[in-house]
Amino acid sequence: MSDELKHLVDEIGERSSAARVGHHSLPEAFDEDLWRVLETSGLTRLTSEQDANPADAAVVLGGLARHAATVPIAETDLLAAWLAGKADQEVPAEGPLTVAVADVEARDGRIVGTAADVPWPAVGPVVLAAMSADATFVAVLDPGSAAGGYNLAGEPRGDLPFDLPLDGVARLPRGVGDELLRRGAWARCVQIVGAFDAAVDLTAAHIRERVQFGRPLSAFQAVQHSLAAMIGEVERSRATTALAIAAANDHGFDSPRADFAVTVAKVAVGRAVAPVTTIAHQLHGAIGVTAEHQLWLATMRARSWADEFGTTGQHATRLGRMALADDDAWNLVVGS
């Protein structure tokens, strides 16, 4: 199924990308036409309603990220619909969803707080995960407002305040919230690798076509070395992300193996973002820094996504604690 799915996603992504040429804006607009195509194709609720596995979800997420799709596909399927199902909360069967995460303390029979940087807050219902020390409170909220907020790539982000009675929300174990964050980190790793692939393709094409001093840029040894370094970082990221995909696919997102693999991937992918995006822009020259250029859509997404669902530093700290807590650190190093 994966090869057919990959072909389908690439075809849809290419068509959507071609239709958006010359229509880039800040903030990015939700692509209603693309969403309708994805929904008709059964790709918007792939894991939550069609029992597809994480490997298939990764094909969709990576492919759409490669084409800079402006739809909350990870937020809808892998996060919001899954969380609503765990909490037995009703959400619309169609249309986009998003998810909000916040730390709270339950006081006086209420949970009060603000979820920061909610992705795509205005496109549809928001499934809230309000996390305390020992519980995850889940509720479905009305769409919020981005209020002009967006990340480096122009994707809408907004803060969402809430004040809810405890008897009006579902109370789940804290571990559910932890799994939600793990799923989000996993999705961002997959999406960043997709954005990396777009950056590599664009950079390789540019240095082949751009002529300087009578020779294509690709003929210069320094350019070749830079491109090789960039690709090396991308492949290191792909390898750790493939481990995370396999762990989630074989053992589930709630397993210790997935926890370890996603943590490793978030560290490796996050550390690759700076060199990959820097080299891509350097090899493109001045044209690469313009918001209108396709490269900007890939690199700025990678930089933005790297800090979501836990920063690289936070995951590196967590990985270090895993190593210290293991009686045999070598087992951790080799992934056993």
UniProtKB/TrEMBL annotation:
GO molecular function: acyl-CoA dehydrogenase activity
GO CC field: cytoplasm
Keyword Nucleotide-binding: no
All residue ranges annotated as the Acyl-CoA dehydrogenase/oxidase C-terminal domain in the record: 181-318
GO biological process: fatty acid beta-oxidation using acyl-CoA dehydrogenase
SUPFAM superfamilies the UniProt entry points to: Acyl-CoA dehydrogenase C-terminal domain-like
Keywords carried by this UniProt record: FAD, Flavoprotein, Oxidoreductase
KW Flavoprotein (keyword) present: yes
Name of the protein described by the UniProt record: Acyl-CoA dehydrogenase
